[in-house]
């Protein structure tokens, strides 16, 4: 299997307490691309948070096969997850809550990823009656609004058990309902998810830290969007870390007009590292005498995800997560 033109999806689903459902969703991702010879997709990782009742499946594939893998996983998730029965402390609006498509190779454009994301939302809304979608990033034409402003616009941050679905807007599919909810689907450059836990139950203080580290705050960390949640008797600072491509995307840092080289060249990204986020949170918490408990990466850094995807697909390992195990919190 060629390692060129890879894409990836960090699929967020509103289920973490039923291991069998997670395994079925992972199997469906690779079963959906099984009609062609060779391994055409791989589930690299499953991250499962029991308290949040939320899981993230990392699905990688050549960009022309990514839609089939993601749609297969989503259809299984919609079949098995009834959002009206789901409870957890993390905001959510959908049984399948988020479908973000990211390029892994410099030869894969955001426009292409956006078209794939839009097509995923269209197929799912056509085939799963009652599903509903809002679009973001490169799938949201012509505005191309980011995930955070779109979430604010549709009311994602108010998403919890027992909400009034008549107040929520959508872009594609049926009006949002208690069974399936409302799913975000879009494309951007890779977003790293990094959570830092501090030893306190003071949510207001956690929100102070969130404000201090956000990219929108003067002196904040570039690309960092953050929220604070109660989590297993502590406060978790949950960070989404946006990335941007470095200017020189040629192999080895040298300019090249070789299309074959460019196709196989991983996309090199700039982003605030988890270590930088951890240290900033640790320093801010320490000012109040509060210790840091630890830091968790949800999935991988972009360069690690790319390497694992290439290795898994070339070696024919379509369920890499099994050798890594489900990561729990």
TrEMBL record:
Residues of the Formiminotransferase N-terminal subdomain domain: 5-189
InterPro entries: Formiminotransferase_C_sf, Formiminotransferase_N, Formiminotransferase_N_sf, FormiminoTrfase_cat_dom_sf, FTCD
Signal peptide: none
Molecular function via GO: folic acid binding; transferase activity
Source organism, top-level taxon: Eukaryota
Pfam families with a match to the protein in the record: FTCD_N
Transmembrane segments: none
PANTHER family xref list: FORMIMINOTRANSFERASE N-TERMINAL SUBDOMAIN-CONTAINING PROTEIN, FORMIMINOTRANSFERASE-CYCLODEAMINASE
Protein name, as recorded: Formiminotransferase N-terminal subdomain domain-containing protein
């Amino acid at each position: 299997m060629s390692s060129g033109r890879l894409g990836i999806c960090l699929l967020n689903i509103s289920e973490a307490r039923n291991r069998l459902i997670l395994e079925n969703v992972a199997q469906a991702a690779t079963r959906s691309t099984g009609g062609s010879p060779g391994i055409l997709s791989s589930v690299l990782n499953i991250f499962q948070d029991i308290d949040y009742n939320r899981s993230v499946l990392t699905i990688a594939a050549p960009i022309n096969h990514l839609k089939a893998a993601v749609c297969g996983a989503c259809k299984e998730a919609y079949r098995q997850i009834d959002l009206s029965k789901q409870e957890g402390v993390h905001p959510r609006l959908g049984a399948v809550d988020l479908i973000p498509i990211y390029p892994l190779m410099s030869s894969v454009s955001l426009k292409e990823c956006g078209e794939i994301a839009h097509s995923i939302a269209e197929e799912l809304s056509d085939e799963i009656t009652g599903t509903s979608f809002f679009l973001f990033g490169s799938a949201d034409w012509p505005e191309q609004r980011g995930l955070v402003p779109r979430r604010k616009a549709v009311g994602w941050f108010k998403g919890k058990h027992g909400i009034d679905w008549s107040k929520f807007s959508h872009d594609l599919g049926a009006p949002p309902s208690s069974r399936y909810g409302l799913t975000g689907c879009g494309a951007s450059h890779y977003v790293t998810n990094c959570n830092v836990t501090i030893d306190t139950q003071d949510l207001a203080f956690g929100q102070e830290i969130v404000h201090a580290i956000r990219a929108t705050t003067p002196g904040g960390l570039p690309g960092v969007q953050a929220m604070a949640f109660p989590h297993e008797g502590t406060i978790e600072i949950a960070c989404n870390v946006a990335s941007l491509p470095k200017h020189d995307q040629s192999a080895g840092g040298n300019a090249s007009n070789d299309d074959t080289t460019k196709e196989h060249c991983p996309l090199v990204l700039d982003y605030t590292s988890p270590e930088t986020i951890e240290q900033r949170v640790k320093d801010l918490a320490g000012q109040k005498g509060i210790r840091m408990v630890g830091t968790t990466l949800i999935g991988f850094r972009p360069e690690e995800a790319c390497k694992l995807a290439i290795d898994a697909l070339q070696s024919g390992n379509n369920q890499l997560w099994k050798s890594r195990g489900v990561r729990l919190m």
